[in-house]
Amino acid sequence: AANETSGKPYFDVEGFDAASGILTLKPVGLNAANKGKTIKKITLDVTVRGYDPFVYGLNIRTVDSKPAIKVSEAVFYKGTAKAAAVLDKPVGPLTTVSCDDVLLSAVISSDKRSVILTLSEGFKAGNKKLTFDDPSWCAPVTLQVKVSIKPAPSVKLTKTSLKLNSALSCDEYGMYEIKAEIPGSMLKASVTGVAGVNDAASLLVSSGFLKAEISGDTVSFGLVPSKRGTIKAGTYRYDLGLKIADAGFESVNIKPLRISITVADRDPGLLASLKASGSINLTDRADTCIAYNLTLSDINAARAASVSLKGDNAGSFSARLFTEGEILPNGTPAASPAGTVAIQAREGAQLKANTGYPLTVVLTLDNGFKAEKPVTVKGSHSPKKTVLSPATLNVPMNSGAVRFEAVSAALTDNDSIIEKVELIEDSTSGFFEYIPAAGAGSGSSYAGTVRVLKQIKKTGTYKLNFNVTYKDHAVNVKPARLTLTVVVK
Predict the structure, then answer these.
(1) Is the pTM here over 0.70, yes or no?
(2) Which of 381, 387, 448, 458 has the fewest Cβ atoms within 10 angstroms?
(3) Among 458, 397, 465, CA closest to 427
């Protein structure tokens, strides 16, 4: 128990949590008559198991600061009788609120986050005084709040048109949503109905071909293929009935908004098309690709969601999907809003140059529809020009003795990776040996050493021929040939 020793207000023990050791004290008799009075000391009678009871003294001070309350502007929209003035944070305890204008009643919301205002006929906007109170407070708190009456805000639709194909079942590919929104407002929009603007549009719904489902602020549409053939393809227009409401307050009907639905009757294979650009260089596979820009028509889908390849040649190629503006492997930006598919030759795949490889591109669109498009992919064998550096070696001659001279020579290339260099055997090559340097292959260069094997008794110029093979060399293309000039002096 807590006993006061210096007069009211006094405190009592509300609870003690033995697990945490937290003691909660409850003020009793705290009111305006004794506000600000400091209690010098209260005593706590404490009992601990296994020990005699003892008394513990505790100093407590009370303050008389007003509760910190801030409230936002309250906005009534024409046609509504209720509005909310939002509190910047929950205030508790808080039980009552009143207004100095008799034409404006006020109550605290259940979550204590706002003041619900209801106007009566004849109310005029302006600055009003709200008085907040609670039995546990020493005094009420009065604040000024601005109350406005404004026209109803504009309702916007997330889409004003849809493209539906009668070949695609709404049961399989789902319904397509249009949502009513009120940007920047506490008001909520609701869809109340769908009405055709003429008999043809109304028939589309009444016949069951066009399915329309309303749920709150959203209306969903889809076609029922079992009715296919009974309705002509074309564009149909509908008015969406709308109302607005403020967090469950009275609703007000507003002017309908018009949408258009284009109904197409096309084979699903014609809904997506691919247009190719670019080329594959088999000797530079990482940085080259064929880009296929996707175009969608007569289908309510915005873009492709994923891509894959199938067919006998699918293991030799890869496909990646890029969104508009993303940089493709060849350094150019993807150009299609619906997506761009980049096909590349896989590293290590044995491919022929200038040979067509049939593939099937499998596209999954963002509405779940799958489209399979056949393509034929070709690759070229186009390494950049390779040169010898140096192109001429000078070897001194020492008569009567075998002399070895070593001079480094490197093969360089701008793009493609040189895999190996081999000396071609002929009448001249027998005098020399080509020795690749340790770690000779280094991207676009390939280093090696030429040395004399046999004594050369005659000065002169000798030609050494080399075969150059690139990484991922086309299997139907011969190695490149280079000639090194060796001058014996």
Answers:
(1) no
(2) 458
(3) 465
The two three-digit tokens of residue 233, written as one number = 């393809």
Find residue 181's DSSP bridge partners. Answer: 156
- Integer angstrom CA distances of residue 334 from 100, 105, 287, 317: 64, 60, 15, 19
Q: What is the pLDDT of residues 447-484, one digit of tens each?
A: 677 777 666 667 788 888 888 888 889 999 999 888 88
